[in-house]
Amino acid sequence: MTQRQCGFSLVESLVTLAMVGSLLALGAGSLADLFHGLRLQALSGDLFQQLLLARSEAIKRNGRVVLCKSVDGAACVTAGAWEQGWILFQDRNNSGARDGDEPVLHRLNALPAGWRLTANAPVGRYVSYGPMGGARMASSGAFQAGTFTLCRASTERTEARQIIINAGGRPRVQKVWLDDCY
Questions:
Q1: Which of 173, 169, 139 shows the shortest CA–CA distance to 56?
Q2: Is the Cβ–Cβ distance between 136 and 144 less than 8 Å?
Q3: Per-residue pLDDT tens for 6-65?
Q4: Which bin fits 114, alpha (ψ -120 to 50), beta or left (φ > 0)?
Q5: In terms of Cα–Cα distance, which of 130, 176, 170, 110 is closest to 146?
Q6: Please, what are the domains in the chain?
Q7: Cβ(58)–Cβ(130) below 8 Å
Q8: Integer Cα distance of 36 and 44 in angstroms
Q9: Contact, 96 vs 114, CB < 8 A?
Q10: Beta-bridge partner residues of 135
Q11: Which range, of 19-33, 66-80, 161-175, averages the lowest pLDDT?
Q12: Taking the C-alpha atoms of 8, 12, 13 and 15 in order, what is their torsion angle to the nearest 10 degrees?
């Protein structure tokens, strides 16, 4: 009587291991892209929600509410980009900058390292909502429409999100592709 051996040979095991390794390597790139896509969606959602909150607070409080970039979570800054963080406050004197007696309604810390949040000139320093829910410049009262662009720092083509504020003050999110992001 002969015994039959069951199992895998060393060669079969190595081939199987090589195939599994190749599939994992291919999937790791896709997994990283998925992770960055989800992070991009979450971060753009944060800014979008802050703009909606600013608009609704201005209507609720029947006064100006401002979203401005802030490093320390207490005062507005004019230098740098929006990824350093921002605050939402009630602007009682319509200056577009927070004074010590104006209440901070919400704050968001800096974005994670490697992410960029830039804005065009109309919303480069702040976004200001009036009591009717429209985005208006604090100094002149002119309507304030503008675009924020959020992307992961890259010298190559990369996916990004633009948060666009229309003339009525309503924000919307749009998916875009950029040639680079820095």
A1: 169
A2: yes
A3: 777 888 888 888 888 887 776 666 777 888 899 999 999 999 999 999 999 999 999 999
A4: left
A5: 170
A6: 10-178 (3.55.40.10)
A7: yes
A8: 12
A9: no
A10: 129
A11: 19-33
A12: -170
The residues, ordered by sequence, that sit 6+ positions from 78 with a Cβ below 8 Å of its Cβ are 125
Mean pLDDT across the chain: 91
What pLDDT was estimated at residue 29?
66
Q: What is the pTM of this model?
A: 0.82
Residues with Cβ within 8 Å of 182's Cβ and at least 6 positions away in sequence, in order, are: 116, 153, 154, 155
Euclidean distance between CA atoms 127 and 47, whole angstroms = 12
- Give residue 124's pLDDT band: very low, low, confident or very high (50, 70, 90): very high
What span, in angstroms and rounded, lies between the C-alpha atoms of 51 and 165? 9
* Structure-token match 């924020």, residue found: 148
Q: Sheet with 158-165: list strands edge to edge.
A: 115-119, 146-152, 158-165, 171-178
- If one counts every other C-beta atom within 10 angstroms of the C-beta of residue 89, the result is 26
Q: Identify the burial level of 65 via C-beta atoms within 10 angstroms of its C-beta, where 0-12 means exposed, 13-18 middle and 19 or more buried.
A: buried
